[in-house]
Amino acid sequence: MPKTADLPVALLVTRNFPPLLGGMENVNQHLLRELAREWRVAVSGPEGSAAFAPEAVAVCETRLKPLSRFLVGAAVRSLMLAREVRPQLVIAGSGLAAPMAWLAARLSGAKFVVYLHGLDIIAASRIYQWCWLPFIRACDLALVNSGNTAKLAISRGLSADRIQVLHPGTDLPNLDSATGTAFRTEFGLGDRPVLLSVGRLTRRKGLAEFVTRALPAIASVSADVVLVVIGEEASDALHTPSGSERERILRAARTANVESHLMFIGRRDAASLSAAYQAAQVHVFPVLEQPGDVEGFGMVALEAAAHGLRTVAFAVGGVPDAVGDPETGRLVAPGAYAELARAVVELLESPQSDAGRLAARRFAEGKDWVAFGNRLRSLLAA
Each residue of 143-158: pLDDT tens digit? Predict the structure, then answer.
């Protein structure tokens, strides 16, 4: 094994990194870990990120707010890090970080790579489209989280021959039915059929529309069904709409007279989330198809599959890359709420078999974090 001093150097530049929460942050943390297997790594990231990086990684932090301050500060710190560590590879953890990463790569003569997640290609901002996309197009390699993101990148002028799909991964947990039973006991769910929604509460996730247009039909067939919602408001997102999304969902439930079928339990740790997946019968992912916004991949659907839990989802954005129909659930045409409700009811009425759970886990295993790391290193080596 080569000595640490003999390893090539990589610099990751990103706003999307813990302690911020979300799918992009999770992906960038795993990207850093996989890079550290074969590279010496430095990170230019948000305030607090050093606590979530491996011990040997050099980290420069920048205060998150206001955004303008972060962008300027991250650019300066990225250049300082590049001058100090002289990387051979600079990766932007999202399109937002592309200008800072490009500058660091130019300073050090490094290869410039950007990891694109979907929204960072089509963000509905003229300033972003005019000022950020030229830096994204200048990359040597664009990693994208789904086939749909690849199409979006090509539509914005990136060369197809510089784009490679790198799906986010998932952990493969050891399953134990007792943890699901304990979760049901903790939240007083008893034997009720449980639908599960996991993720930050944003309009794109489509829960208010699901509660209004699909949950009443499901409840008319399954009288005790309950939708358990895990997640909180997206307070750290760059573009957070005014008002509470949780309250909007609750108002929708009251209007549709299904408030008794809805339960919010906030953010949960990894162990509790795993128990929730094992306690549920169906994971619902009714993401909206809307201009200027996109679901890049759908990591929660892959996490559900890793637990042997089936997902019913709209086939929007990159979601079809995360849901294997029929191995891991059902994909429904966008906006077809009656069909979505029927698919949920059918799965509730046909409990998942052991063979079905194994098939779902095999699908997830093909996209786990080990596969993610192997493909990442292969693409960078090429």
Answer: 999 999 999 999 999 9
Query: How confident is the model at residue 1, as a pLDDT?
Result: 42
CB 139 within 8 A of CB 98: yes
Determine phi and psi for 33, rounding to 5 degrees.
-60, -40
Overall residue count recorded for the chain in this entry: 382
For residues 348 and 321, is the Cβ–Cβ distance under 8 A? no
Using the 8-state DSSP alphabet, how is residue 173 labeled?
A: P
Distance of CA 155 to the CA centre of its chain: 22
Cα–Cα distance, 230 to 200 (Å, whole number): 8
pTM of the model: 0.91
Beta partners for 197?
A: 229
Question: Residue-wise over 46-58: b if at least 16 C-beta within 10 A, else e?
Answer: beebeebbeeebb
Question: Above 70 in pLDDT, residue 5?
Answer: no
Cis peptide before 326 (omega within 30 of 0): yes
DSSP letter string over 47-116?
Answer: TTGGGGS-TT-EEEEE--SSHHHHHHHHHHHHHHHHHHH--SEEEESSGGGHHHHHHHHHHHT-EEEEEE
To the question of domain 4-168+369-381 being in CATH 3.20.20.70, the answer is no
Question: What is the average pLDDT value for the chain, to the nearest integer?
Answer: 93
Which ranges in the chain are annotated with CATH 3.40.50.2000? 4-168+369-381, 177-365
User: Taking the CB of residue 336, how many other CB atoms lie within 10 A of it?
Assistant: 15
Q: Are 151 and 118 in contact (CB under 8 A)?
A: no
Architecture of domain 177-365: 3-Layer(aba) Sandwich (3.40)
Task: Give tens-digit pLDDT for 182-204.
Answer: 999 999 999 999 999 999 899 99
pLDDT of 240 > 60? The answer is no
